[in-house]
């Protein structure tokens, strides 16, 4: 099957890197800032500038992020011109700062890439989505698990009818980096991270992937949450209210039902996102800790599909960034996401680029999860 890997476009026909047309600023100097900076560079772009929580933090992160200039603050970066002018602002700050940074960047005429959760409330996510539409800028949210070729393959197979009518979906997203009471991070603080932590941080990825792959939309849900470590702190323990674990049961628009377990305290599970959908013809199962494979289940015969050129449909093969047999993973997903963001800025319409509309969708699901857990009953998800 003839395929055009995304790398052909990225690296030009002569094999050399393209002229950088993607001039980015990274706002936020933590782990995610590094992942974004690297993806910008792989896409042939420039990390023109870095903005941190202080001028000193921006300066000390500059080399690590491969940036050219440490800006004193956001205003200085947004006002820069000439060689320091920026096209796209990547927002990798704690969640409560997403809204003001995004609104300022859009007002300055920039395209934006904003980490998830897009905002700490659905109303803020709505305002950001409306502002992006009004500004006519590209506004993307890195729901990056969409960029695994085997996820695209699952989506194509659902679209081709290989699963039939979907009636059940289940899975989990499990991590262990917050297992101990001494494990700490800004995300556990609701003022900085928002009212839901495990769901907002990683449950949002799972729901996005479910809806992306299956085309089903969650319309009703019931959630229970548990804060396992009610006291937390690297040095001094303090009281924590955000959830470590959340279990969600849901119904989709077409009447399928399902459930997901989301946990940041599951020992041994580093980043285990498992999604399985079943329908009248078959099942598909994807595990992001084993992302080069996709399980296909049939009543008569099941098989483990691997990322071979003959297996992949054209839309999935577009995201194969390295030859089969050479595993690709998390950073590759980010690289592909930024390459598609660049394509969108250049006027293309990449299939499945996650935008602020998807961020808003996740914010509405998060709000429903918080409400259901607090009030102890099923709630409708705003569409
Ligand atoms: C931490 O839980 C984290 O870095 C998330 O914030 C990311 O979205 C996820 O992709 C990996 O884990």
TrEMBL record:
Record bears the keyword Phosphoprotein:
no
Against SUPFAM superfamilies, the record matches this protein to: Glyceraldehyde-3-phosphate dehydrogenase-like, C-terminal domain, NAD(P)-binding Rossmann-fold domains
User: GFO/IDH/MocA-like oxidoreductase domain location, by residue?
Assistant: 151-284
* Domain Gfo/Idh/MocA-like oxidoreductase N-terminal span(s) in chain numbering: 23-141
UniProt-listed Pfam families: GFO_IDH_MocA (PF01408), GFO_IDH_MocA_C3 (PF22725)
What stretches pass through the bilayer? none
* Keyword Oxidoreductase attributed: yes
Which GO-annotated molecular functions does the record name? Answer: nucleotide binding; oxidoreductase activity
Report the domain of life of the source organism.
Answer: Bacteria
Keywords, comma-separated and alphabetical: Oxidoreductase
What protein am I looking at?
Gfo/Idh/MocA family oxidoreductase
Query: Species name for this entry?
Result: Jiangella asiatica
Identify the taxonomic lineage of the organism of origin: Bacteria, Bacillati, Actinomycetota, Actinomycetes, Jiangellales
């Amino acid at each position: 099957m003839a395929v055009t890997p995304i790398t052909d476009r990225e690296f030009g026909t002569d094999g050399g890197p393209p002229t950088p047309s993607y001039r980015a600023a990274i706002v936020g100097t933590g782990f995610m800032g590094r992942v974004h900076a690297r993806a910008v560079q792989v896409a042939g772009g420039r990390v023109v500038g870095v903005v941190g929580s202080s001028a000193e933090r921006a300066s000390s992160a500059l080399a690590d992020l491969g940036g050219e200039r440490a800006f004193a603050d956001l205003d200085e970066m947004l006002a820069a011109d000439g060689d320091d002018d920026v096209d796209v602002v990547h927002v990798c700050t704690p969640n409560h700062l997403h809204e003001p940074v995004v609104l300022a960047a859009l007002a300055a005429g920039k395209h934006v890439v904003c980490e998830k959760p897009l905002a700490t409330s659905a109303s803020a996510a709505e305002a950001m989505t409306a502002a992006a539409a009004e500004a006519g800028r590209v506004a993307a949210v890195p729901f990056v698990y969409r960029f695994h070729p085997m996820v695209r393959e699952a989506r194509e197979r659902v679209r081709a009818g290989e699963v039939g009518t979907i009636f059940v979906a289940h899975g989990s997203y499990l991590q262990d980096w917050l297992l101990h009471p001494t494990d700490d991070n800004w995300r556990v603080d609701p003022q900085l991270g928002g009212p839901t932590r495990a769901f907002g941080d990683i449950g949002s990825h799972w729901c996005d992937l479910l809806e992306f792959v299956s085309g089903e939309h969650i319309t009703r849900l019931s959630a229970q949450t548990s804060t396992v470590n009610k006291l937390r702190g690297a040095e001094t323990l303090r009281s924590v209210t955000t959830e470590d674990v959340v279990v969600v049961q849901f119904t989709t628009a077409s009447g399928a039902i399902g459930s997901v377990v989301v946990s940041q305290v599951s020992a041994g599970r580093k980043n285990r996102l498992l999604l399985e959908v079943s329908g009248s013809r078959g099942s598909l199962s994807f595990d992001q800790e084993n992302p080069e494979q996709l399980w296909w289940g049939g009543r008569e015969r099941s098989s483990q599909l691997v990322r071979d050129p003959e297996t992949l449909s054209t839309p999935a093969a577009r995201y194969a960034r390295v030859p089969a047999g050479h595993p690709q993973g998390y950073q590759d997903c980010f690289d592909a996401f930024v390459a598609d963001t660049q394509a969108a800025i250049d006027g293309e319409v990449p299939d499945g680029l996650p935008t602020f509309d998807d961020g808003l969708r996740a914010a509405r699901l998060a709000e429903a999860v918080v409400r259901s857990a607090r009030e102890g009953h099923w709630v409708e998800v705003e569409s």
